[in-house]
Amino acid sequence: MARIVIIGAGISGLAAAARLATLGHRVTVCEASGTYGGMLGRYERDGFSFDTGPGLLTLPAVYRDLALKSGREPLEQLVELAPVAPESRHLFPDGTDLLLPNASRGGVAQALDEAFGPGSGERWGEVMNRARTVWEATRRPLLEEPLPADPGPLRTDPYPAPPRRGLARFSRRTSTLADVAQRELGGHPGLTALLYEYALRFGLSPDEAPAGASVLPYMEQSFGVWYVTGGNRALAEAVYRRCEQRGVEFHFDTPVTEVLVADGSARGVAAGERRFEADLVLSAVDARTLARRGIVPGLDPKFGEGPSTGRLTVLLALRGARPAGTAYRTVVHARDLERELDRVFERPGLPEYPTVQVHRPDDPTLRPDDAHEAATLTVTVPDPDELAELAPDFEAYADHLLDHLAATGIDLRERVLWREVLPPTAALLPPSLAGADGRFLNPPNDSGIPGLYLIGATVHPGGGLARAGMSASITAAGIGPA
């Protein structure tokens, strides 16, 4: 039995703790805040509850595996889980209204034909077929297994070159997501906005992200999107309960100030004057924080650094019942997509008429009664540190967002009882992607220091709820049973 200390009680830390305790290890978790869950936070007021992190779950198989491996029971016995229908509604600046079905590529093609004209679904489907090739090539090395010791092959984008005819034969190959939009989607504004939205959600610039980033819509449209009753915070609660059942010891309000290294190996952690000795240490906190704050002696201060963006969130407590037939997720696309990308990635500032995610769950546990509704707006914005230097007025911007939505037919302004604006305080974290000479590969789980492992959204296999869970699974499997 190894003594294992985990830094951070976010979802990856919880998942690793549950797995390792089940394998017979003695596990202690040190968490800087007063609660668990990390990005799966919750805001509660006056009978309303809101997820402050991701509201939907993709690849639920990751947490089904966790439930079975740590307790031999299906995930559905721990949380109430259901596929979202429709997967999303999309409102475009030209007035087009698109409903996408969940986990039905054929249904998506039909919906695109109806919204954008015949042939649109086929064109999109051809891109998704090539994205399937990316999925098949990268699923194991970029999701299910440790980052290869030699990641060289992953520096090349597995996105297959589409057939090129005429003068196109002499142009450079498709290398970025922007190339895919221009060459394979014909620059169609609606299809381009749809493709870019998946990248923007993860803080990826279409001009920089490899063509293989098309795997993101492929995964959602092939495997579906799911909702956890009570929000994803309920998932964190379930995993925390499993940790308690397996004897994991938690210390909250205990920020780790140093990883203790002796004879070149991690031997525990310091939290101020407190010491927690260990045979192994797992860090589930932002890897860049470890480097910048000197928590790990000798770790390069630039470890894990890269381009970053943030997410602005507005929580809305609404009077009046949720209208029947309202989609859980509506995406209001930017009035001027290129201008939005310029403000997010090139000239930092709040985009004027941005792409807005509107989440309106039909969940009685999140509202005081059926005469009210809880809704959440999210917008991708520039790097939080850069944005903070501009000192934007987020309250005025929230008013502007409500006006922006009203112009598309979603007028919530007269229904707002109160709102809470959550300024962006953390960077969006993209998944590991092949191509672009390895620029989109996250650091490996092996820190390079014996006895110290890194898990969570800032390392392999990258950002997103499913991948954070997979980082825990990969690392726990590498450590093995006691």
UniProtKB/TrEMBL annotation:
Pfam families: Amino_oxidase. Residues 1-17 form the signal peptide. Keywords: Signal. The keyword Signal applies. InterPro entries: Amino_oxidase, FAD/NAD-bd_sf. Residues 11-477 form the Amine oxidase domain. It comes from the Bacteria. PANTHER family: PHYTOENE DESATURASE. This is NAD(P)/FAD-dependent oxidoreductase. It comes from Kitasatospora cystarginea.
